[in-house]
Amino acid sequence: MKSTLILLFFAIMPFLAFSQDIVAYEAIGELSEDLIAVKKNSSWGFIDSNNKVIINFKDNIVSENYWMDNEKKYPLFKNGLCIIVEYKDDIPYYGYINKTGTIVIKPQFLNVSNFNNGYALATVINKRVKGVNQYLNKEIISYDFFEAIIDTKGGIVKVLRDIPYLYMRPKDYEKPYSNSRFIGENMLAVQNKASKWEIVSFNK
């Protein structure tokens, strides 16, 4: 009887070990560039196919629908980069991390897309100091907004269109929306002011 129990224990031990390795997540994304997005305690991280955590869980990894052409509700790596967000004065600014979790493009854009063949779309904000209010001792700030193509270093490759003024007060702020999308290598579809579509090409 004793020998039978010992044999039974060794027979089921691999299954016990396997069950201990199973981790329950709130959500799981798709495999993208050898990494899988997983959600735990309301934060996202990335694991590899062996369930090893590669990027620790963070609350700044973006999962929502941030551009028209992305309907997925989980983070993705594209061209080695994943979108993150940072709030400044209650306004969200977007940037990118690499596959080690290091910030390579600091959060500075009001909206961004995933990268495609080395390029992404971004809503750029240009802040200008026009002077100083002598009574309040505060800077008088003016903003310009435009949509642009950026490279994997965050540099502006081509300006696509100006964007109407956005209120930068948190209570009035609305995230800028765009229909622009990549339709091929170095080629985009961009909607003009007359709501007509134009094909825009750009050089590397």
TrEMBL record:
Keyword Coiled coil tagged: no
Superkingdom of the source species: Bacteria
Keywords of this entry: Signal
InterPro entries: WG_beta_rep
A Pfam family: WG_beta_rep
Cell membrane among keywords: no
Leader sequence segment: 1-19
Protein name, UniProt field: WG repeat-containing protein
Organism annotation: Spongiivirga citrea
